[in-house]
Amino acid sequence: MDKYIEIIKQRLNPYRFTHSVCVAECAVKLAEIYGADVKKAYVAGVLHDIMKNTPDEEQLDYLKDLDVSLNKTELSNPKLYHAISGAHYIKNELKIDDKEIFDAIRFHTTGRAKMSLLEKVIYVADFVSDDRSYNGIDEIRAAAYRSLEEAMMIGLEFSIQEITQKKQTLHPDSVDAYNELILEANYE
Ligand SMILES: [Fe+2]
Ligand SMILES: [Fe+2]
């Protein structure tokens, strides 16, 4: 476990390092509450932003070397690169052969439909970890301890609003995640 802490200490700036540790701690708490794998939640939390401070071009080159292609939406939004390159990095360089951890990192920025419990835990922990402070955090933090889906919904609303306000491209996976939550909420 500690070896991953050492690795991110090398790869991330102090702000991002603290954030990653806080996300891991929060992911463990959420995993305990909702019955996800606590160990995997910790590892995915520590490593989820491992490529966040790597230059965009370097991330694209890395993915190209692995023959991983990005779609138009992904290419147009550099903020999405690190989730994709990070998932591949932990698989190929850190030799973490675990599809659940891979997906939790791969989809931590966009979300997607049919997310696993671990994916939801990491997605929500990324929003409500102790280092976070933004308008509305109290609402989503309270929701996170009531219902992961409710917290996901608020998180997605927040992201979608931010993206549309900045006139950036909205990833279809986020739309799918949002629609699924709405549909499920309506059928309760
Ligand atoms: Fe991230
Ligand atoms: Fe993060």
Write the layout of secondary structure elements.
Blueprint: H1 2-11, H2 14-34, H3 38-47, H4 56-65, H5 72-76, H6 81-92, H7 99-106, H8 117-128, H9 137-144, H10 148-165, H11 172-186
Helix pairs in contact: 1-2, 2-3, 2-8, 3-7, 3-8, 4-6, 6-7, 7-8, 8-9, 8-10, 9-10, 10-11
The structure holds fe (ii) ion (FE2) (2 copies).
Summarize this, please?
The chain has one domain (2-186): Hypothetical protein af1432 (Orthogonal Bundle). Helix content is 69%, strand content 0%.
What keywords describe this structure?
11 helices; 188 residues; binds fe (ii) ion; Hypothetical protein af1432; mainly alpha
Describe the protein's architecture and organization.
There is one protein chain. With 188 residues, the protein is mainly alpha-helical. It has one domain (2-186): Hypothetical protein af1432. Helix content is 69%, strand content 0%. It contains 11 helices and no strands. It has helices at 2-11, 14-34, 38-47, 56-65, 72-76, 81-92, 99-106, 117-128, 137-144, 148-165, 172-186. The radius of gyration is 16 Å and the shape is globular. Bound molecules: fe (ii) ion (2 copies).
